[in-house]
Structures are given as structure tokens and as C-alpha cells.
Write a structure and sequence with these properties.
By secondary structure, the protein is mostly helical. The chain contains nine helices and two strands; from the N terminus they run αααβααααααβ. Helix content is 77%, strand content 2%. It is globular, with a radius of gyration of 21 Å.
């Protein structure tokens, strides 16, 4: 089935219904809905043009270059969701999401999907890595945000513990654990209900493309495990990087690095 612009317009009309509801209830979300809709159209059209060029070129440097750009944007987006940022957060986020997502994606391409040749086949490398990046950045963002809030809120307690002889790890351990727990909880919850409450994107796409249901399910299982692995690795990495940046070797909490985002 091929969708026309008219079909897209029918789907877009639903947003106007939501806007009317917002106006009727005084939610003041009409502008946000319009902006989000316009950005959705423009961003997807842009990536469509870019992907068309990359697919046509079919060169490893084009694929890797696009993935690098996607990774940096994902790292920046993760920090953009934080309420209380610290200097160096962007670096930590990009490092964590790069290492976790690229390691997991490489494992998928070279080990699980080893029959795909060449390894940089855009049809597989780009959407696969994109799904991993898009989902793992949520865990990374949640973990960083929870850690910064915990450390800022418990600053007096942390400093008191270190004054009494506790190491920086002993003082920050509970905050680190809570941050990691917060970051990985959503993906665990998603795995609990996948296929029962929610119909994931990969599986839906496979079914719409005419793939046998069982084959679509197998693809989705692989994707869920890859996303979970990248999310957990990325969350742990970014929380530990943040912890190392916010405490120095003299066991002092560097709260001066924090800058709260103005709303």
C-alpha cells in the first residue's frame, strides 16, 4: 500500500481536533501542538532526503558520517531534558551514548546479523542504530537528571559524610544507585508489556511490509534486547561519568558546576 499526500493530510487533521480540544479546555497547548507537528513534518522530510542520498551512495563513510551526526544529536538531546545541568554534561552524555549504542549496534551487525553484506548496508545499519540511540537516550537523560537532583538536594548530607571521613563513593553511592535505577526502569517496564499492551515499531513495520508474523516477532525480540542492553550500559556509563566529574580526588562535592535551567 502506498500513502498519498491526501492520506497524510487525513492523519494531520487529527492534530486539529486535538488543538480544538486544547482551546475548549483552556490547556494552551495549541501552539505547542502546531510547532511539534511542523517540526515532525520538516524533520522527517529532511531525514527522508538525507537517507535517500545515503542509500543511493551506499558507501561506508556516508553511513558512518550520518550515524555520527545522529549520535551527537542524541547526546545533546539527552542533556536538553535535564532540569539541573552541570558543566561537562554534554561531553559525558555524548561519550556514554556513543560507547553504549555503537558497541551494541556493532554486536548486532557483526555477530547477530552477520549474513548482511556489506556490514554498512544502509537498510540495516541506519535504522538499527537509530532505534538503539533513540531509546537509550531516554535512560541516559533520566539517569543524569535523577543524579543531579539527588546530589543537589542532599548536598549538606553528602558534605557532612565526607567531613566525617567517608569517601566520595560512600557518600554518593545511594544517589548513583537511584539514578541508575531511574534510568533503566522504563525499558524494563516496556519489556514487561511488549506484545501485550504495546505493538512495537519494528514488529509493526515488518507486518505492514508483509513479513510473516513469527519473523516479525523474532526481529522485535532481537531489537528489544539490543535496546535494553544499550540503555543499561549507557545509563550506568553516564551516571558514573557524572559522578566522577562532580566529585574530585580530594573527596569534595563540586556543586559549583551546577546551573539550573531557566524555565
Amino acid at each position: 500500500m502506498t500513502l498519498s499526500l491526501f492520506d497524510v493530510g487525513l492523519a494531520a487533521s487529527l492534530i486539529f481536533v486535538n488543538g480544538a480540544i486544547s482551546i475548549a479546555l483552556g490547556l494552551r497547548l495549541g501552539r505547542s501542538l502546531l510547532l511539534a507537528s511542523v517540526r515532525t513534518i520538516l524533520q522527517l522530510l529532511l531525514i527522508g532526503v538525507v537517507l535517500d542520498s545515503v542509500f543511493s551512495l551506499n558507501k561506508w563513510y556516508a553511513v558512518v558520517g550520518l550515524l555520527v551526526v545522529m549520535t551527537v544529536i542524541a547526546g545533546i538531546s539527552a542533556v536538553g531534558r535535564m532540569e539541573r545541568r552541570y558543566r561537562g554534561a554534554y561531553i559525558d552524555s555524548v561519550i556514554a551514548i556513543s560507547c553504549s549504542s555503537w558497541i551494541v549496534a556493532a554486536y548486532a551487525i557483526f555477530v547477530i546479523m552477520r549474513d548482511v553484506q556489506p556490514w554498512y548496508e544502509p537498510q540495516y545499519a541506519i535504522p538499527l542504530t537509530g532505534m538503539i540511540l533513540g531509546n537509550s537516550l531516554n535512560g541516559i537523560s533520566l539517569g543524569m537528571n535523577r543524579l543531579s537532583e539527588q546530589l543537589s538536594t542532599n548536598r549538606s548530607q553528602l558534605e557532612a559524610m565526607m567531613t566525617l571521613g567517608a569517601t566520595r563513593w560512600e557518600a554518593a553511592r545511594d544517589s548513583v544507585r537511584q539514578a541508575v535505577h531511574t534510568g533503566i526502569t522504563p525499558i524494563i517496564n516496556a519489556m514487561m508489556v511488549v506484545g501485550i499492551v504495546s505493538m512495537p515499531g519494528m514488529m509493526t513495520g515488518q507486518l505492514l511490509a508483509g513479513a510473516p508474523p513469527l519473523q516479525a516477532v523474532l526481529y522485535q525480540i532481537v531489537i528489544m534486547f539490543l535496546i535494553a542492553a544499550a540503555t543499561i550500559l549507557g545509563t550506568v556509563a553516564v551516571v558514573l561519568l557524572s559522578y566522577r566529574r562532580l566529585f574530585n580526588a580530594d573527596h569534595q562535592f563540586l556543586d559549583v558546576l551546577f546551573t539550573k535551567r531557566s524555565l
